[in-house]
Specification:
The chain has 279 residues and is an alpha+beta fold. It folds into two domains: 15-93 and 250-258, Immunoglobulin-like; 102-242, C8orf32 fold (Roll), CATH 3.10.620. It contains six helices and 15 strands. It has helices spanning 102-106, 119-125, 132-146, 160-166, 171-184, 239-242; strands spanning 15-25, 29-33, 45-53, 56-57, 61-64, 70-76, 79-89, 148-149, 168-169, 189-195, 205-212, 215-219, 231-236, 245-248, 252-263. The model is unreliable at 1-11 (pLDDT under 50).
């Protein structure tokens, strides 16, 4: 069990987030999860993580991955696993700076954002001579208008090309299509798993980030939650890097889970054309 932890940072509208999961472990396995708020400079956070197997505490190894993502790894026998996480996010984290390797890493095709399939498509769909900021807005609008948000319309293994053809999906599908189109336009982009106050239906949420004028700015074509309220959980090339549960070896069943995310006060207004960074 992890107790309360506090990190220093500046002022922001406080946010409260939580996640509760119940998982049946049918065979001994190694389980990894990413549900805790990313550990980043400037963040002031009070949190508690409680993990039990059949009512007994579980030994947990915490790994800090890229961009503050925290992976909690467990070796588990058979039984009923319960996971409870709560956090008070008291300040914003400092914006993540652009690193020298980011352009190389986040222009490459990845499992669910196969940008190499979109080079011809973007050449016919967008004006490649426009500044990158304008292309970003055009991509965000294109995906918002092209897709319908329909839970159950996609499979967990669908990539951006599948989503474009289906014309429907959920937040991760929207984000994957945004990321793939931006990379095909030579704009580095990646996926971020977040807590999203104001999101309806409430769930773990996925958005895209892109490098514009030397900064990572956030794109959410679902328009389900104000970007200013987002709380970073995990960051990666696509959902393969940011899944909230990864199972290795044994058989598990996710019985149920519940996510909450709120702000203390009024939700901020989000002008879709404004540049916003996740803090």
């Amino acid at each position: 069990m992890l107790g309360f932890i506090t990190y220093g940072g500046g002022m922001t509208l406080p946010r409260d987030v939580s996640a509760r999961l119940e998982v049946s472990i049918d065979d001994p396995t190694e389980l990894e999860m990413q549900i805790t708020v990313a550990k980043l400079p400037g963040l002031q956070l009070a949190e508690e993580l409680k993990i039990e197997l059949d009512g007994s505490p579980v030994d947990v190894e915490e790994l800090v991955a890229d961009h503050g993502s925290r992976i909690h790894r467990m070796q588990l026998g058979r039984g009923l696993l319960t996971i409870d996480y709560t956090a008070e996010v008291l300040t914003a984290a400092n914006p993540i700076p652009v690193e020298s390797t980011d352009r190389s890493r986040y222009l490459r095709p990845s499992r669910y954002a196969e940008c190499d399939k979109f080079f011809g498509f973007v050449a016919g769909q967008f004006d490649l001579s426009l500044p990158e900021g304008e292309l970003l807005n055009q991509v965000a609008t294109f995906v918002e208008q092209r897709l319908n948000y329909i839970p159950g319309a996609s499979d967990p293994i669908d990539g951006a090309a599948d989503t474009l053809l289906a014309g429907a999906g959920v937040c991760r599908d929207y984000a994957h299509l945004v990321v793939a189109l931006l990379r095909a336009l030579n704009i580095p982009a990646r996926l971020v798993a977040v807590y999203a106050p104001g999101c309806s239906p409430m769930d773990f949420h996925a958005v895209a980030e892109a490098i514009i004028d030397g900064e990572w700015v956030v794109v959410d074509s679902t328009r389900l939650a104000p970007r200013q309220s987002l709380v970073r959980i995990a960051t990666g090339r696509d959902a393969a890097d940011t899944a909230f549960l990864d199972n290795h070896r044994g058989t598990i069943t996710l019985n149920k889970y519940e996510v909450t995310a709120t702000v203390r006060g009024e939700l901020p207004y989000d002008d879709a054309t404004a540049r916003v960074m996740i803090g």
